[in-house]
Each structure stands twice: as C-alpha cells, then as structure tokens.
Specification:
12 strands, single chain, Rossmann fold, 3 domains, elongated, alpha/beta, six-stranded parallel β-sheet, 17 helices, disordered C terminus
Length: about 450
C-alpha cells in the first residue's frame, strides 16, 4: 500500500531512504534546511556521493514520486508518516549530539497541531536508548500540545546502510527493526518495506536503539580483533589473513549466535588459559594488543557485578545453584561460580551449594587441585538436593543451567537472583512481538 512519507534530512541516509521509498511506490517529500541540497534533488541530482543514487533520484523525480522542499510544515501536513534522518554527531565529550533531532521533532509537533488525522513519527537517526523515551517524547508532546500514543505515535527504525553500498544494503538488509509501543504503529512503519524481503523484528524502542549501536560496536571489535590476531600472527611467523580465513569457516561456533548471548562470566580450562598465553606472548614481543588484553579484565568486571547484585540484597544466607563452569560437567577449573563462592565465603556469607554433577570424591587431578586451593572445605558446602539448599537460603543464586532442573517457584518462596539473566536484562519486561530471543546462558 502506497504511503505519503516525509523524510527529514537529506544526507546519506535520508537521500537513499527517500529515493528507495519512492522507487517502491510511495509518495515521498524530502526535507532539508539546505536549499542547495533541495535544488539538487529537484533537478534529479544527488547532493551526496553514493553509487547509483544519481540515477535513482532522477528516475523518481521524473516520475513525480519524489520532491524536495525546505518547508517542513507543508511536508508534514501532506504526509501520514515522517522519517527523521538528521545527523547525530559526537559532542566534544563523546556523547550524542541530539539538538538537530530535537529541533525536527519539535517542528513536526507544531506542524501537527492543527491537524486531526493519525500520524507516525519515526526516528531513523542513531540515538542512544533513553533519548527517544526521555527527551524526544516530551519535546513532541510539548510542541504538539497533546499526549502521544493515541493519534500521534513515536517509534524508531534504525538503519544499517553503509556508504558506497547503501542502496544494496537498503534492498538486502539483515533485518528490519522497528521499536514501538503499539503494534499498530509498528505496522505503519513495516508497510513502508513491503517490497523488501527481510526478517521483521518488532521490539521496544530502547532495544531497537541499542541494536544499532551494538552492531557498529561489534563491527569495530571484529576489525580490531582481526588486526590484533594479525599482529600476533606476524610475530609468531604465521599468516594472519590465512588464520582468520580459516577461523571464519567455522559457522557453528565462530561466526554464529554461539557465545553471543549475554549472561554470566566465562570460565573453564580453555578460554582463560589460552587468552593468557596469547597476550603474554604479545607482551614479550612488545606487540600491543589492547583489545585482547581487555578481555579477562572485562570478564572479571562482570563477575564483580554479580557479587554487587548479591550484596545489595542484604541477605547473608546464600544458596548457590551450580558450581562447575558449565552444567553437566564437574570441571571447576576457573569456573566463575567457584570465584563467586570464594568471594562470598571470604566476605563471611553463610553459603551452601547445589550442583548434582560435582562430588568431592569424583574430583581428580588438576580439577581436584583447583578445588582444594580455592574451596578447601567444599564437602561442607555441597548439599545433596535442592530442598536442603532452599531450607538454608534466604537468597538463592542461580548460576548455571542446573537451575532448569529444579522447580523454583513451587519449592522456594524466598528471594532469588538468576545470574544468567539479571545481570543483562532490565528490571521491566520488554515485549518482543515477532522474534523470540534465545535464552542467555554461561558459555565457555
């Protein structure tokens, strides 16, 4: 179904979005304060350098499906949905500069004051979670002089366009993400992309905003990681490009959702040991690997967050569910749960532990040595069943997927913390109306 759309901001994102929406049959008005950009578009010329955009713009201007103007008010009043694509550059302190977005939102609100039809305002600009909810919503309501959510809706639709391949990225996105409070508002946005074959993800606005930042941060991490591996490879006499080519062939663990599920800290006999080895080699050869150097401290910080979460409850009798680094094993070596237990005992907490896979008599070799060094009185801490744990504890801490084997709501009425979720999930529930999210778990 064809929509009347205003695209506000005729930079890279705005121009590509406007041209592609027009190509897909929508009636589009591009808006910008720069009269030179507006004139160029109306002449069928792109104001930005992007392969294929000149031809696409000209074809849509000639077809009269795309026009540009400096008059925001008339563009809004002639539309039913507005996409905001103005820039959000870094401020001097590194924070997001949102004045341009706020100005546009306020202008939209004023333009809608004397109208009565439904309208959807879509933030396509990149803003952090909280900006839309805590700042832009109030700006819009004040300018509109009415509450949003009934007639006027505010949502976000982050873009994933790369310069020099923006049109191709628009046509073949990994997914189309819409953050909205109401499904009806999300449907309005999704209707713009009916001709695009891609997975639709509808979620809350905070999650949608953070998806964009997370993607870009992950891309930066991947570049930095590959470059550091390349530097280490050169120092070891290996070919870093070949190493990463082979690594990327693994679609089961390396290039996959595996390990990319936030939960508790990692541990075990492999990851910490091998990270130490590769970073120690780099130190010896004076190869700076800041990213690799940061991983173990980052993991320790996550473990500290778990301790703080427990401390803040004020409870002193703790029941810990899970001790091995992964459920279904008895491997305690560098388990974050062992480290947590050791911290709790050192702070004077009264601790009991339930992990049916761990028995003192079953521990051997390096595993036994590790347990004796870090939890020398382990036998006194372990309980045979969850009921014994529940009888002891005023706070139950779920540390591994062993927790899935017990019926916590029925058998225990006290407080509990799930380290697989509570460290990484907001206190309030946020709906995912179309795409289920994989349960987080500790991975190693």
């Amino acid at each position: 179904m064809s929509k009347r759309v205003a695209v506000l901001g005729m930079g890279y994102v705005g121009c590509v979005t406007a041209a592609c929406l027009a190509r897909d049959g929508h009636q589009v008005t591009g808006v910008d304060i720069d009269a030179g950009k507006v004139a160029a578009i109306n002449e069928g010329r792109s104001p930005v350098q992007e392969p294929g955009l000149d031809e696409l713009l000209k074809s849509q201007v000639d077809a009269k499906r795309l026009v540009a103007t400096v008059d925001l008010e008339s563009a809004i009043q002639a539309s039913e949905i507005a996409l905001i694509a103005v820039g959000t550059p870094s401020a001097r302190d590194g924070s997001v500069e949102t004045r341009a977005v706020e100005h546009v939102v306020a202008s939209i609100g004023r333009a809608l004051q004397n109208t009565s039809s439904d309208f959807t305002v879509v933030v396509r600009s990149t803003v952090l979670p909280g900006v839309l909810e805590d700042r832009l919503a109030s700006v819009l309501e004040e300018a509109l002089n009415e509450s949003i959510g009934d007639r006027v809706h505010l949502c976000n639709n982050p873009e994933f366009l790369r310069e020099a391949s923006a049109i191709r990225d628009y046509d073949r996105p990994p997914f189309i993400v819409v953050g909205a409070s109401e499904q009806s508002a999300a449907d309005q946005v999704l209707s713009l992309y009916e001709s695009i074959e891609a997975e639709h993800v509808v979620t809350d606005t905070r999650t949608a905003a953070l998806v964009k930042y997370t993607c870009n941060a992950f891309h930066a991490v991947k570049v930095g990681f590959a470059n550091e591996i390349g530097a280490v490879a050169k120092g070891l006499g290996a070919d870093g490009q070949k190493v990463m080519q082979i690594v990327c062939r693994d679609r089961q663990l390396n290039i996959s959702p595996a390990y990319l599920r936030p939960g508790f800290a990692f541990g075990g006999s492999c990851l910490p040991k091998d990270l130490r080895a590769i970073t120690r080699f780099a130190q010896e050869r004076a190869i700076k690997v800041d990213l690799l150097d940061s991983i173990l401290p980052s993991n320790q910080s996550h473990l500290h967050r778990a301790w703080e979460l427990i401390r803040e409850t004020g409870c002193r009798r703790i029941g810990l569910v899970g001790l091995s680094f992964k459920a279904g094993t008895d491997d305690l070596r560098e388990s974050p749960l062992v480290a947590l237990a050791e911290t709790l005992l050192g702070k004077g907490y009264d601790l009991k532990i339930y992990d049916p896979g761990v028995t003192v008599t079953g521990l051997v070799g390096a595993n036994l040595t590790y347990a004796e060094r870090h939890l020398p009185h382990l036998a006194k801490l372990l309980v045979d069943n969850s009921s014994e744990l529940f009888d002891h504890a005023e706070l139950v801490v779920l540390g591994s997927d062993i927790a899935d084997e017990i019926d916590l709501p029925c058998d225990y009425a006290g407080q509990f913390i799930d380290l697989r979720k509570n460290l990484v999930t907001a206190d309030t529930e946020v709906p995912d109306t179309e795409v289920p999210i994989a349960e987080p778990s500790t991975l190693a």
